[in-house]
Every structure is written in structure tokens, then in C-alpha cells.
Amino acid sequence: MAQTKLTNAQIAWRAAQDIPDGAYVNLGIGFPEMIATFQPEGRDVVYHTENGVLGFGAAPEEGQEDWDLINAGKKAITLNPGAAFFHHADSFAMVRGGHLDLAVLGAYQVAQNGDLANWRVGSKGVPAVGGAMDLVHGAKNVAVITDHVTKDGKPKLVETCTFPLTGLGCVTRVYTSLAVVDIRDGHFVLREKLADMPLEALQEVTGAKLHVDGTIADLVVPDLSGN
Amino acid sequence: MDKTVSTVEEAVADIADGATVMIGGFGGSGAPVELIHALIDRFRATGSPGQLTVINNNAGNGGIGIAAMIKAGMVAKMVCSFPRSSNAEAFNTAYLAGNIALELVPQGTLAERIRAAGAGIPAFYTPTAYGTELAEGKQVEEFDGHMYVRERWLKADVALIKGKLGDRMGNLTYRLAGRNFNPLMAMAAETTIAQVSELVEPGGIEPEQVVTPGIFVDRLVEVAVPQQEEVLVREGVEY
Q: Where is the signal peptide (chain A) (predicted)?
């Protein structure tokens, strides 16, 4: 039976394939952290975390955690050879100063002009922003990984964000459960979609026009059900 | 020159009511737990210092450290980027009851505001938060075709920080990722108080390895086997 949508692991796998050898990358806390798991063999990628580490590796074995060695999600990490520590102002100089090649974040909504809403959904409760508003500025590319629609089926790729904004015109590429979409000149440009999904059906669950520029490739990912 | 004091109680003895207090650390990494707890002890014993403004990346976790300060009723305002944690009940309860104010600052802007204060720069422009609700009411300006938000420096009366090695002149190193906000806060406060895991004689830290030069540190105290906030939270410890 044809797969109707990608799992989170498959979305993360797809995003990982585009990270080139030698890249400096920040993965947002939560879902984007999974991308590191799928880094292709033979590529050196240096991961940055806001709290002052470059070159961190996988989580340690349970019981081996050192809680002075954590990532921005407050999870225990290990260090790869060549890792470096630095203070918070240097860490965000790396971010805003344009030194990172890529930042990958989650999203509540992405607009066709690249606006991102990913830090809160309304005015209730306790607001928390962390480094999200900084990360969307400065990295050479800002990608989003997300389900294509919300849990109740509403588009997350929209004409205009209705949730509070994280940054204006900052997203360059979106990897969803159904497609890979670039943002160019204020438009969504469809690059890949699931082979069995008609363009019309994809457009129906997308909140703004999907433009086509050249060929649309099939979005092909491995099964990964063991992950 | 000898900036050391012998106890954490002595180290925090002159922090006044209404003071603005920067507290280093990111979550539990690099958090000066013993200095915070000494401040809580003083508040419980004397009712002072209260009505504090606390600057930290977070707003406490579980029932220790900054969370315990909030539960004790010492904190009037938090300035932070991410008041969420694995157990943010102390801050959430106080905030939703209207008992504590919150100034939410994007993390990189928080770091740079503190750095700017330490460097004598009263304001700077950043792309962060432009066009969002966190930039409302702030001056904006275009530079080279892009829009930026003006942010002010962030100063404090006192900084409580945690180092690894410290010498009597106040030179410091940090442990692993426990560096985070600590070196910035050391620069930005009127009085910087450091707890260090090992006190050494001047020369005991290689000059090439010094991260915070002693000019930024006013007082230091050795806490030989410091507690780790994350470990205490996982053990369910309430201070």
C-alpha cells in the first residue's frame, strides 16, 4: 500500500540528506534534533548549540550524563573531537553574524513570503522564546521541518501567518510530511512531492498557491520503521 | 590582592532588598546553586533581600535554585528568555497568579544586552525580533537594506556566577558548557560574586587558559564539591 504521509523520522531523514559535508548547523530543540541521527555516512557536520558548544555528538549512555554538558534542549550530550566551548555572546555572534550554514526549526505556520510562527500560538499561558527569534536571522539557510497540516487538518503552509511571528521573511525551505517546498520571491515553489499524491490533492491541503518551476521530483525516503 | 571570602553566607551578606541580580547558568549547567541557597537562607532568617529582579536564561526548575527563590517569595521580577523547564511549576504558579513580573527577552538579545552593559555600550541594533511582538514599542532602523531593532544594555547590582578554577585575584575558568552566561554576567554587574570548585594561588591558572580575567570579579568563595541543579531536580529535592 502506498504511504500517505511521511513519519517524523522520514521528514528528518529527508532534511539530513541536504546537509553538505563541512556544514555548521544548528538544530532547533525537539523534532529537528532528530536530523543528526540521519546524517549520511562520510559527511562531517559540526553541530552548534546556543548554550555554547560547537561539535557535539550523540547523547551519552544512560547513567553517563554530565549535566554541565547539555544542549539547548537541556539534554545531555557528548563531544566530538575538535569540539569547542564559548560563552553565550560568542554563541549568538555565530548565529546573527552569518557564520552558520543552516538552522533547522519546527513551525506552527510558515507563510509563502518566508515568515515563520513557531514560538507561541496565542496570548494565554507563560510565553517562552529561547533562541528561536535569533536563529532565524543570520544562518545562510533557514529550513523548517513540519507536518504538512495541523492535527485537525488545517494547512501549516499559509498565505499569511495568524500566530505570533518569530521572524519575517526568514525561511528558505520547508520539509513536510508530503512535500519539499522552497520559498522564492514571496512564493512557495514545489520541489518534491509523494509520488502517489496528485498535485491538486497537495494544493488542497496547502494554504497558499504552490508554484511549479521545472520538474517536481518524487519525494523518496527509506522505510525507517525501525527508528 | 585577595578577593576570597571563606563562606557563601559571607559572600552574599550585603545583597540589598530590591536589587537586580544576574544569576549565571543555562538550566542547571553552570548554575551557582550554593550561592543561591545562601541567599535564600538569609531571606528566611532575616526577611531580606526581597523584591529582587532576577536575570537568568530560565526561571528555575523543580524546587531548588531560582525556583526555590521564587517559592520563598523573594523575586518580584524575572528577566529571561525561556521560563519553561521540565518542572516550571514555581514560576508558572507565581506568574499566573500575578505575583511575579516577566520581561521576556530573546536569548541572543539577552546575552548581547548583558555583554553590552559590561562593555560600556548603552544600546545596539539587532535583527532579532524585528516585526514581532517582542519588538513592539522599540526603535527600529534600516542599515544596508535590512531592518534592525534597538536594544538597551542590561546591568545588574550583583552577579552570582559559577567557575571551575579561581585564583585569589578572581581569574576564572569554567567547566564544560557551564560557561554560557557566566563570563558575560561577570562583566555587567556592580559586584560580581563567584563560587569556584577549586581555589588556587595566583599562577595556578595558566594565563592562556583564563576565561574571565579577575578585573571582572569582586569576590570569590570556594565550594569544593558543588551541587548540580539537574541532579537535585531529578532527585526531587526541595530547598
A: none
Q: What is the mean pLDDT of residues B152-169?
A: 98
ipTM of the predicted structure?
0.96
Number of cross-chain residue pairs from A and B with Cβ atoms under 8 Å apart: 141
pLDDT digits (tens, 9 = 90+) for A48-93: 999 999 999 999 999 999 999 999 999 999 999 999 999 999 999 9
Q: How far apart are CA B54 and CA B190, in angstroms?
A: 15
Name the percent of chain B lying above pLDDT 70.
100
pLDDT at residue B91 is higher than 70: yes
- The one-letter amino acid code at B57 reads N
Interface of B with A in 198-237 (CB under 8 A): 211, 228-231
CATH number belonging to domain B8-105+154-234: 3.40.1080.10
Specify the 3-state DSSP secondary structure of A170. coil
Give yes or no for a contact between A105 and A118, defined as CB atoms under 8 angstroms apart. Answer: yes
What is the mean predicted confidence (pLDDT) over B115-127? Answer: 98
Rounded Cα–Cα distance for residues B169 and B201 (Å): 9
Q: Which residue's C-alpha cell is 541557597?
A: B37
Per 3-state DSSP, what percentage of chain B is helix, strand, and coil (rounded to 5)? 30, 30, 40
Please give the domain boundaries of chain A with CATH numbers for all domains: 8-177 (3.40.1080.10)
- Return the pLDDT at A3: 72
- B 48-87 near A (Cβ less than 8 A): 57, 81-86
